[in-house]
Amino acid sequence: MSEVAVAEVKEPKEPLFSKKNRALISNPMDDDNPITVQVLGICSALAITVQMKQAVVMTVSVLFVLAAGNVIVSLMRNLIPNRIRIIVQLVIVAALVIIVDQVLKAYVYDVSKALSVFVGLIITNCIIMGRLEAFALANKPWPAFLDGIGNGLGYGFILIVVSFFRELLGSGKIWGFPVFGQKVGALLSDGSLATEATGLYALGYVDNGLMILPPMALITVGAFIWIQRARNTKLIEA
After folding, report:
1. Considering the chain, what is the average pLDDT of its residues?
2. Residue 174: helix, strand or coil by DSSP?
3. What is the pLDDT of residues 160-196, one digit of tens each?
4. Which of 156, 99, 152, 98 is nearest to 130 (CA)?
5. Domain that holds residue 80
6. Do residues 113 and 46 make contact, with C-beta atoms less than 8 angstroms apart?
7. How confident is the model at residue 80 (pLDDT cuts 50, 70, 90)?
């Protein structure tokens, strides 16, 4: 074969959703979950999971910042001097967080107020900085984007699961809507207060007030980690 013919032989392009690329999304959901396996970003998992609405908004926020940040850093990876790479990454993440913060204040102000400083603290989220440093700087934009999506979904999955049980058992609600019935004194849709208990509350059920306290978030995450390792024994450290 001539040299010209050899030069014309090109490596086949990797499919956009090859097995390797699909693993970038699936692994963080289980075997390489950023919270339960890598133990990163756990602070927000403990602090803002009292209600599902807050957890979902935080999930979408981190997902956007992580995916966009990964792509931007990947595109700039050959241009960023090694000595200032952390500073550049922080500037990129800070700019994205400012965009998220302004959008939340404009469209879901009540949730933005409830999340308080935790939106700003996305800048220092260990998951984001870890993926920028460990993956985005060494990979092309598409894998970096998938890695950001995967880790964002893995992070959000834990937040939503924890917030589901905390809100349900702590206040008898899901997404703010009563599930176990109405308690005496609860605010009704017409603006009046309920004078009679309904549903499980009429049978004597009482909300578990411990579930809305921060320690129960840690216990719930711990229970999830235990279940995950019982199901997937390869995650158990020797």
Report:
1. 83
2. strand
3. 999 999 999 888 888 878 888 887 766 666 667 777 7
4. 152
5. 34-165
6. no
7. confident
Q: Looking at the domain assignment, is residue 186 inside a domain?
A: no
Q: Render pLDDT for 189-227 as a digit per residue (tens, 0 to 9).
A: 666 777 777 778 888 888 888 888 888 888 888 888 888
Burial bucket for residue 156 (CB in 10 Å: 0-12, 13-18, 19+): buried
Amino acid 124 reads T
Tokens representing 181 are 């019935």
Give the model confidence (pLDDT) of 86-104 as tens digits: 999 999 999 999 999 999 8
Q: Give CA–CA dist 36/223, Å, rounded.
A: 10
Name the H helices within the chain. 3-8, 19-26, 42-47, 52-75, 85-107, 109-115, 126-134, 141-171, 214-231
The interaxial angle of helices 85-107 and 52-75, nearest 10 deg, is: 140
Helix (H, G, I), strand (E, B) or coil at 212: helix
Residue 75 structure tokens: 């595109």
Distance of CA 214 to the CA centre of its chain: 18
Q: Look at residue 110 and tell me if it is in a domain.
A: yes
**Range of weakest confidence among 11-15, 98-102, 104-108, 114-118:** 11-15
What domain count does the chain have? 1
Q: Is the CB of residue 50 less than 8 Å from the CB of residue 208?
A: no
> pTM for the whole thing?
0.83
